[in-house]
Each structure stands twice: as structure tokens, then as C-alpha cells.
Write a structure and sequence with these properties.
single chain, alpha+beta, Deoxyribonuclease I, Chain A, six-stranded mixed beta sheet, 7 helices, globular, metal-binding, double-stranded DNA 3'-5' DNA exonuclease activity
Length: 256
């Protein structure tokens, strides 16, 4: 079972890229972030024609998350991150697919730091930690996939000294990610590639992709029942080189 996460950076503007990748990679489950579309503008018909059932949580201009499942409809189990009734951002959705709980998240960017956006990022992250602490203990396999907007360590960024003032690389954000791992989650990509620089995001300018000047901010975390099924993981980095593509590349795990 191949489970992937992909910050598509505009689901309608990059629909051709998404459909091309789905046709070639044929992931069984896909978590999408940054839909940049309200619910009524989600391209459900095109995704159905590609062979996928879907659930989505959209927003007018920014954010937005979705879960796709090949040949079946995901069973929605949660919409929105609990803990703040006034938070109207569409950043979390969760579903059961073929016996696996899949959480799809788009964690706030937090820039500029310091400031209100960074404070919101850390409040959101604290709420996510609370939910993750519950889900990690489940007997069922749980996969938490998405754009975490956190660079966990120096090994996850090209020239880390250039990111010291960025919210993605803030000590508070890195500490929060470390706390998630301490709960018992496995960082699947880092587990498979413990000593390699593996990136999932490259900026559009200065030839960042061509120079491989990237970051690792798209993560797939597995609880113990899911981790015991892990066969391999990877990044479909060739997708980042396509025309009119997202600045992220799809990340995936293969579970037995």
C-alpha cells in the first residue's frame, strides 16, 4: 500500500501535474495540501475520472487539505484540528482507508518570526501534538502525512546557516518536531535514509532545484503498528522538474 503526501500548491492551477503524477505513480492514498480552493471548487470530477475517491476541506484563497484513495472512498474520521473553535483555517483532515488511519496536515508557515504568525504556528503545533499523543497509542496503523513546515535538523536543509531566522528552522519548531518523535512516531523518510540529505521542497528562484538547494519539510510519521509494516519510502523528485509544477515534490511510504 503506497501512501503519499503532496503539497500541490494550487489544486486547480496544477491539476494537470497532479493527474499526470497520479497516473504514473498510482499511489493508493494521497494527502494533498495547499489546495487554494473553496470546497465547491475542488476538482472532484477530474479526480474521480482518475480513479480516486476523495474528501476535502477547502478554503477560499489559501490552505486546504484533501485525502484521495484509489478505487474507494475515504471514510472521514475528523475535519479540522481540535482545540480552538475560533480557528477557521483548513489545515487538517483525517480518514480511515483500508484499515489505516490517515491524518493529512498543513502546518502553518509562521513567517515572519517573531510575530503573530509565528505565535499561531506554535499554538497550532501544540494542538497537533495533543492529537498526535492520542493517535500514536492506537492499535491500528496510523499515518500522519503532510507539509509540516518544519526543518527538523541541519541535515534537512541546504546551507542551514541561511535559515537561522526562518520560522521553519526556529528552535521552538524543531523542538516540537522532536517531541512528536519522542511520543513514539517514526519519521519514515529519515528512517529509510538515515545518513543522506533528502529534500522535498525547492524554491522557484536561483535555480534551487537544479542546484539541489532544498529543504525537507514534508514528512510522513508512523505509529508503531504502521512502522512495523514499513517496507520503504522515497521522494518523487522528478515531479519537481515538470513544467508548471509545485515547489514541493510528492513524498511516499510503502506499507505491507
Amino acid at each position: 500500500m503506497r501512501i503519499a503526501t503532496y503539497n500541490v500548491n494550487g489544486v486547480n492551477g496544477r491539476l494537470d501535474v497532479l493527474l499526470r503524477w497520479l497516473e504514473g505513480a498510482k499511489p493508493d492514498v494521497v494527502c494533498l495540501q495547499e489546495l487554494k480552493a473553496p470546497d465547491e471548487k475542488f476538482p472532484v470530477r477530474a479526480i474521480e475520472e482518475a480513479g480516486y475517491g476523495s474528501i476535502w476541506h477547502g478554503e477560499q484563497r489559501w490552505n486546504g487539505v484533501a485525502i484521495l484513495a484509489r478505487g474507494r472512498d475515504p471514510h472521514e474520521t475528523r475535519r479540522g484540528l481540535p482545540g480552538d473553535l475560533d480557528d477557521g483555517h483548513s489545515r487538517y483532515i483525517e480518514a480511515a482507508v483500508n484499515g489505516i488511519i490517515v491524518g493529512c496536515l498543513y502546518l502553518p508557515n509562521g513567517n515572519p518570526r517573531p510575530g503573530p504568525k509565528f505565535e499561531y504556528k506554535m499554538r497550532w503545533t501544540e494542538r497537533f501534538e495533543a492529537l498526535a499523543a492520542e493517535l500514536v497509542t492506537l492499535d491500528a496503523p496510523v499515518v500522519m502525512a503532510g507539509d509540516y513546515n518544519i526543518i527538523p535538523t541541519d541535515d534537512d536543509v541546504y546551507k542551514p546557516e541561511r535559515w537561522l531566522d526562518d520560522a521553519l528552522f526556529a528552535p521552538e519548531a524543531k523542538a516540537a518536531y522532536a517531541r512528536l518523535l519522542a511520543q513514539g512516531w517514526m519519521d519514515a523518510l529519515r528512517h529509510v535514509y538515515p545518513d543522506e540529505r533528502v529534500y522535498t521542497f525547492w524554491k522557484y528562484f536561483r535555480g534551487a532545484f537544479e542546484r539541489d538547494a532544498g529543504l525537507r519539510i514534508d514528512h510522513i510519521l508512523l505509529n508503531d503498528p504502521a512502522a512495523r509494516r514499513l517496507k520503504t519510502a522515497g521522494v518523487d523528485r522528478t515531479v519537481r522538474g515538470w513544467e508548471k509544477t509545485s515547489d514541493h515534490a510528492p513524498v511516499w511510504v510503502m506499507l505491507e
